[in-house]
Amino acid sequence: MDKKPPLSSFCFCTSTRNGSIISGLLAIILSIITIVIIFTTRVAFKTIFLDLDTNIVKIILVINLAMTILISTLMIVGVLKRNHYIMMPWVVMGIMIAIGLLVSVIYTAVVFFIDGYVHSGVLWLVFGLICCVILTYFWCVVYSEFTVLSQENERGRYNKQPYRR
């Protein structure tokens, strides 16, 4: 029996296919913007567990963002070529980033609260959780398209129409 995808459309107005392409393009654009910000601002980046030099943390972030660009490009190619295998790295990476973002938002908000910056902590928590929800929604859109394409590939592309709600 086929598994139903979590979503049948993107923003109630277009297909999960289009939503997946939009998700990939947004990830690429946001990664490029973040790389530019990392190199053009003087922000002291820190890690939660290790005490690393700020420049090393910047290099690690840029490498991660470059990988995001590569994996998002692969996901877009997978959607266009209707190949769920090419989409798989993005599906795995997307949920890992959502969990990492959630942990980072909560940790940073707690640090703000402990240091006495209550307003900053509240703002960080509210906007960070909104970003987590948006990221999780985009992941669900891509996962839905991934599910449709994997079922399509299992039964043969031309045997049946893919499941759509």
Automatic annotation (TrEMBL):
Annotated source species: Stomoxys calcitrans
Transmembrane segments: 21-39, 59-80, 92-114, 120-142
UniProt gene name: 106081020
Protein's recorded name: MARVEL domain-containing protein
Cited InterPro entries: MARVEL_domain_protein_3
Domain of life per record: Eukaryota
Keywords: Membrane, Transmembrane, Transmembrane helix
